[in-house]
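job 3f2a | input accepted
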Amino acid sequence: MAAVGSPISTEDHIEAILDGLQEEYDSFVTTITSQLDPYTVEDVESLLLTQEERFEKNRVTREHLLQANMATTFSSPTATMFARPRFTSSMSKNGRGQF
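job 3f2a | predicted structure (99 res):
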């Protein structure tokens, strides 16, 4: 609207920014819209960049955990060869060991 000579209000500008966000930003949108003191566009953009950085940090952490889990789940043949044997119980039905 500003391009055609009619300036957009701060509230409308912030609403347009928030409307364009994906569902994963719902808690962010709730936080912004529930404040009694209105934010500026610059405040919202700064907070949004911070939120995006947190999403990226958490995504990288999840990927590293997944990779670590995959590495331990799919162990190498060498690791299997040197693994400690599992012991099974030699107890009979009556609770006494077998000799």
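job 3f2a | The radius of gyration is 29 Å.
job 3f2a | closed
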